[in-house]
Amino acid sequence: MAGVISYSALASALNRGYAAASTDTGHDQSAGLFDASWASGRQDLIEDFGHRALHLTTINAKSITQAFYTEPPKYSYYTGCSKGGQMGLMEAQRYPDDFDGIVAGNPANDWTRFYAGAHLWYSLAMLEDQESWIPRSKLPAFGEAVNEACDALDGIEDGILQNPLACNFEPSSIQCPVGTDNSSCLTEKQVSAVEKIWSGVKTSDGDLIYPGLVPGGEADPGGWGRWVTGAEPFTSLHWLGGEGFFRWFVFNDPDWDFTSFDFDEDLEYALQKVGNSVDSNNPDLRRLRDNDSKLIVYHGWSDPDISPVASINYYESVVDTIADDMRASSYSTALNRTQNFFRLFMVPGMGHCSGGPGPDRFDALSALENWVENGIAPESLRASKVVNGEVTRTRPLCVYPEVATYSGRGSTDEAENFYCAAPSL
């Protein structure tokens, strides 16, 4: 949960000629990646963590820069991923004057619902009983079965799901025969756990709290084995994150048991207590638009942490808000107006901020600079897959809702042989 200064990000910005700043969001992470005991009884630290630390850091960084150079920065940019993506969207919504441009990757912006509907729900599905947990040894066969069913849906067999939402793979298709259990199949309870994780959790009224994960990337080294299953029960990052947040941010109880969580009453209590401090899910970005600032969001389709569907849902909510502002204009018109200042790029095969089977290296910041400073909006981003220092594949990342489409000519490992187009139904 933050708590560190990102010196590598500072170095990267300095190498590009920027004056750079980073924040630990007001606390120290030395006690552990998901330790949240620092938040116990400290609403001030929760406010810092949620939004205030970055805003004040930005104000002070600009003042220091102006004092040193005797003139203010010409342009100011922000880039961050995961919690950093949440912070980027918080800036866009709450402090739209801070930056001329923002890059927010794999954002955990609907923070409270994400911690309940992802961290807790995925953990409850996996740890319902001893037989529900999936050992890492089963993930290669699971991932291979998903790819065999859905890899070629885009016309190319490349180990990447271009659009996981089109994948109708049924986990029950690899269910172990009665009386058997080995690494090539899932037991009945393990199948049920996968179905729960993919479908997401709903309230008792049937309202979706947070979307589930999507097929793809299950066997990747940074995929399900790290986030969903863990090396053994009660070691997954989903479980560690969910327990810490609700134990200290919400209930302030070191003995709180995650299995006791009520997705109606406890979620509502959490939203009332800390939602306003940590959630950056406001779809009204008109102040950002009117400030002539630009926003790029990207999200890996194979993210095992934050559902990529959440970024699509947020983007669509922004389009709907723009449509309402235009008084019942058509969706296409509202989408075009939204794309004038906010563009979403889905990244096939990329995991949580990086990694995964797909091309995961791309320069969103240069695209943002060109958009802000020259008025040239990015129509695509060129992504590369690098293995052992060598580029093995390139692909264009397209502006949502368009997807990369193979031209039918040349190597499928070269971006030049693809174009961006609306997805086929």
In short:
The chain has 13 helices and ten strands. It has 425 residues and is an alpha/beta fold.
Polypeptide structure, described:
With 425 residues, the chain is α/β, with parallel strands linked by helices. It folds into 3 domains: 1-74, no CATH class; 75-110 and 280-421, no CATH class; 113-236, no CATH class. It has helices at 7-15, 43-69, 83-94, 111-126, 139-150, 188-199, 224-227, 237-250, 265-278, 286-290, 308-325, 331-339, 364-374, and strands spanning 77-81, 101-105, 201-202, 208-210, 294-300, 342-347, 380-387, 390-398, 403-406, 418-421. The protein has a 4-stranded parallel sheet, with helices on both faces. The mean pLDDT is 95.
- Average the pLDDT over all residues and give the rounded result: 95
Stretches where pLDDT falls below 50 for ≥5 residues? none
Structural class of the secondary structure composition?
Answer: alpha/beta
Order of adjacent strands in the largest pleated sheet: 1-2-5-6
Task: Itemize the secondary structure elements and their pairings.
Blueprint: H1 7-15, H2 43-69, E1 77-81, H3 83-94, E2 101-105, H4 111-126, H5 139-150, H6 188-199, E3 201-202, E4 208-210, H7 224-227, H8 237-250, H9 265-278, H10 286-290, E5 294-300, H11 308-325, H12 331-339, E6 342-347, H13 364-374, E7 380-387, E8 390-398, E9 403-406, E10 418-421
Helix pairs in contact: 2-3, 4-6, 4-8, 4-9, 11-12
